[in-house]
Design goal:
With 196 residues, this protein is of the alpha/beta class. It contains 8 helices and 10 strands. It has a single domain (8-193), classed as 3-Layer(aba) Sandwich (Restriction Endonuclease). Helix 2 crosses helix 3.
Amino acid sequence: MGLELLPLVITSQYEVHEWKHASAILAQDFPCEWQDIIEVVSAFRLRRSWVEAGGKNKSDISKQIDQEFFKRGWEEKQFSTSIVVDGKPTDSPTHKVDCFKNRIALEIEWNNKDPFYDRDLNNFRLLFDLRVVSVGVIITRTDELQQIFDNLGRGKSFGNSTTHMGKLLPKINGGGGGGCPLLVFGISKKLFLEEA
């Protein structure tokens, strides 16, 4: 079992990758969270107005995806962790996870600087090793969207040093996520809607 567990509406419109049987783990052990992911990812469309809007802390795209997960009981989550050496604890907090529910951590990386991938993968690795996360999920964009951004005059805002699949895959293939099973969705141009 693997990506064939995903409906065609997703595999035909997203670039999807997985490591360490993430889909099978989600479908078998976390069916409710798996269904949430399928519903949100299947329904998402990339609106032209969202791409054209700029200069915000968090993009309309990330907000839209976050909100759909929050409606389903997911939450932004930061874990309070510490390291104890010779009985002396030292705080070692993790970075906030965009969306978390029942051991599934999900990050949306739309147009951040590409080192954010390192942060996300390190967080997934650490939380997996601490046995609080079973699968890490990243929703990002495909490289092919650059053509749409260029056509809309927004190409410079979505440059090569920002988060896109071409920056993420080498980090994962290089072991960035450690032992954490990972599932990655790349938003493709097939999801782009010209209307606002």
